[in-house]
Amino acid sequence: MIGAYAHQALRARGEPSDLVQVGTSARALFVLDALPAKKGPLESRRTAFDTAAAAWPGGSAALLRAMAAADRHETERVLGPLGLMP
C-alpha cells in the first residue's frame, strides 16, 4: 500500500515513478481508500469509482476484482450500496 502512496506522491510532484513496481493489490487499495466512504451521496461514490475504473487496466470489472481480492470487507462496505460487487 505504501508503494501506491509513494507513486502518487511522486507523480504529484512531477517526478518519474514506475507503476509496474507497485503491486495490483496496493494500487486497488489506494483507489478504494480514495473513494468517498459511506458519508455523502451515493452518486459521488459511483462517479469516483467510474473515473478510477476508466483508468484501470481491464476497466471496472478488473478493478472490482482487484479491490475485492485485496480487501473484500471494505470493498463491500464502500461499493456494496451501489450494487457493485464481483
Write the layout of secondary structure elements.
Blueprint: H1 2-12, H2 24-34, H3 42-55, H4 59-70, H5 72-79
Helix pairs in contact: 1-2, 2-4, 3-4, 4-5
Describe it.
The protein has 86 residues and is mainly α. It is built from 5 helices and no strands. Helix content is 65%, strand content 0%. Helix 3 crosses helix 4. The radius of gyration is 13 Å and the shape is globular. The chain starts with a helix and ends in a 7-residue tail after the last helix. The mean pLDDT is 79.
Helical percentage: 55-70%
Strands, total number: 0
Uncertain runs: none
Rg estimate, integer Å = 13 Å
Ends apart, CA distance between termini? 22 Å
Q: In terms of structural class, how would the helical and strand content be classed? A: mainly alpha
Number of helices: 5
Mean pLDDT equals 79
Order of helices and strands: HHHHH
* Cα shape: globular
Describe what is shown at a glance.
Helices cover 65% and strands 0% of the residues. It has 86 residues and is mainly α. The chain starts with a helix and ends in a 7-residue tail after the last helix.
Summary tags:
86 residues, mainly alpha, 0% strand, globular
